[in-house]
């Protein structure tokens, strides 16, 4: 396989671009620690095919996903790409473990092993609750996805999920005898420099033309529907001496919608849209605000069962949190007492929570103190242990 070594190999297969895939990178670092040689197969550009490059020290082989450029039907190109990838991966004979990023990658991986004598072990690395992931799926499509996932899990050596609620759902839906391995999307331990965070705070206030010291709320992540961003803006309208920083980017259409809400609510001087920042600098910005807000509505089952990485990024940045009262969010926030969980559909309840965090100094400072303890426990050094042990077992089978 190109320029790879000859020891036992774990290949990470993703149909995405393998850019800013921090969870994948942490997982394959754990596999490397367990003894595997690592490489990645990922999406390339429409111009170049079968190109090698180094990404964060890993060999990445990139395949095209558009093989007939003049075709306007993306679906046809996707089907062609799917089977091209299947046949190419099938020709690679030195893969010991094939770790697949999602159900599409797992489907490619499974088909590539058919009728092979030395089949690689398959890992289903599910980053979301796949069955409840897309609000636009028809009942028929949900039926297909459910049965496909059951079929593929039964043929995988290992299934990895991001939280206990999803693991329980998969056991229940598919009647699994073996519970999926839970590896939460937790970052490395972040060393915070308060002086740098204070500088970022000054930058926020300067951009908002504020000379006072308001209570700063933040949403960070992708700008898209059903993330509670419009609700956050309306919370600023209905609370005193608060401002909000929305740290992230989205499509032109989504950004336009958010700007329209800001203008309609007449809070252009109280809500700052800030572009994405490099991942290794997120702590500087998240650590500069007073309160993080994670209030996605339960519009799809996947959201209700979610345990977003931004929760742990807030913890590592030592920023208290208000979040939707979903099972996994509540387990962490209420368990460690590092914020308040709320009904994301009840604006009044969210306003009361923001006011409590802003005005009850004793409660707020206790959250800040508790989050220091949470930070020590909820870091990748601790989370990766069971993953490394599992990879070591696979390595020695």
Q: Could you walk me through the main structural features you see in this protein, from its secondary elements to its overall organization?
A:
With 397 residues, this protein is an alpha/beta fold. It folds into two domains: 9-186 and 380-396, Glycogen Phosphorylase B (Rossmann fold, 3-Layer(aba) Sandwich); 194-377, 3-Layer(aba) Sandwich (Rossmann fold). It is 45% helix and 17% strand. It is built from 15 helices and 14 strands. The chain has helices at residues 22-33, 74-90, 103-113, 139-154, 164-174, 194-207, 229-237, 252-264, 282-286, 301-304, 309-316, 327-336, 347-359, 361-377, 380-396, and strands spanning 9-13, 37-43, 51-55, 58-63, 97-100, 121-125, 158-161, 181-182, 215-220, 242-247, 271-274, 291-294, 321-324, 339-342. The strands form two sheets. Strands 3-4-2-1-5-6-7-8 form an eight-stranded mixed beta sheet. Helix 5 links the parallel strand 7 and strand 8 (181-182). The two termini are 22 Å apart. Mean pLDDT is 94; it is low at 1-6.
């Amino acid at each position: 396989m190109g320029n790879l070594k000859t020891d036992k190999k774990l290949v990470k297969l993703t149909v995405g671009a393998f850019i800013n895939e921090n969870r994948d990178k942490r997982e394959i670092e754990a596999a490397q620690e367990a003894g595997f040689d690592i490489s990645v197969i990922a999406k390339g550009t429409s111009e170049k095919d079968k190109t090698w490059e180094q990404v964060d020290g890993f060999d990445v082989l990139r395949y095209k996903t558009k093989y007939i450029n003049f075709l306007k039907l993306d679906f046809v190109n996707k089907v062609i790409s799917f089977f091209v990838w299947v046949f190419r991966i099938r020709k690679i004979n030195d893969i010991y473990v094939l770790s697949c990023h999602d159900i599409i990658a797992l489907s490619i991986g499974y088909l590539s092993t058919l009728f092979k004598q030395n089949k690689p072990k398959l890992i289903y690395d599910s980053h979301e609750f796949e069955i409840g992931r897309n609000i636009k799926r028809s009942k028929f499509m949900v039926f297909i996805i459910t049965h496909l996932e059951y079929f593929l899990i039964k043929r995988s050596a290992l299934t990895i999920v991001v939280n206990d609620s999803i693991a329980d759902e998969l056991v229940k839906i598919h009647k699994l005898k073996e519970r999926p391995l839970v590896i939460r999307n937790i970052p490395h331990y972040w060393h915070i420099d308060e002086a740098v965070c204070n500088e970022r705070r000054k930058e926020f206030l300067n951009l908002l033309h504020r000379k006072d010291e308001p209570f700063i709320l933040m949403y960070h992540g992708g700008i898209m529907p059903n993330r509670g961003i419009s609700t956050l803006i309306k919370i600023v309208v209905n609370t005193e001496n608060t401002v909000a920083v929305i740290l992230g980017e989205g499509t032109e259409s989504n950004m336009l919608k958010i700007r329209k809400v800001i203008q309609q609510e007449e809070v252009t001087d109280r809500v700052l849209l800030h572009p994405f920042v490099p991942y290794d600098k997120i702590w500087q910005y998240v650590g500069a605000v007073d309160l993080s807000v994670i209030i996605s509505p339960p519009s799809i089952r996947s959201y209700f069962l979610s345990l977003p990485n931004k929760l742990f990024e807030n913890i590592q940045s030592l920023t208290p949190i208000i979040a939707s009262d979903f099972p996994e969010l509540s387990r962490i926030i209420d368990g460690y007492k590092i914020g308040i969980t709320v009904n994301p559909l009840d604006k009044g309840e969210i306003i009361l929570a923001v006011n409590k965090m802003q005005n009850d100094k004793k409660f707020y400072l206790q959250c800040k103190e508790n989050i220091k303890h949470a930070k020590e426990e909820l870091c990748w050094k601790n989370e990766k242990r069971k993953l490394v042990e599992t990879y070591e077992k696979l390595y020695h089978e």
